Fold this sequence. Notes:
- With 143 residues, the chain is an alpha+beta fold.
- Helix content is 20%, strand content 38%.
- It folds into two domains: 1-89, Signal recognition particle alu RNA binding heterodimer, srp9/1 (2-Layer Sandwich), CATH 3.30.720; 90-143, 2,3-Dihydroxybiphenyl 1,2-Dioxygenase, domain 1 (Roll).
- Strands 7, 8, 9, 10 and 11 form a five-stranded mixed sheet that branches. It has a four-stranded mixed sheet with strand order 1-4-3-2, covered by helices on one side.
Amino acid sequence: MAAATFRYLVQLHKDVPKAARFYSEGLGFTIDVCSLRWAELHSGPLKLALLHSPRSKRNVNIFELESGGDVIDYLPPQLFSDHVEQKGYSSLLSFTVTDISSTVTKLMALGAELDGPIKHEIHGKVAAMRCADGHVLGLYEPA
Length: 143
């Protein structure tokens, strides 16, 4: 049996174009595809997909995405339920940056919130931020 291959990390967002701009302008991701419902970005080998999060709890079918016809055939309703949002489930993305202060400033201008102060550790500076849709970003500037 062949090993599974990583395709991309998918995050749910209320405003996909705004989220794509956040990752592009704030962290330098390249936007490959962006529509109101779906975006694909990359940074090096990492692929990040952004999916619109509808408020309904119905099953969602998404066909013929702008990414050359990829299909996500079925997404279960619990993926979009208020229960999941209320529990605070979120991905955590960790980024190495060259200047943590300027990155924090840029991301805050794009709607992120700093979750506590920038910490100065022996190995470098670290910070935690949340984007407008609540996803946690870890920032690390090596010493």
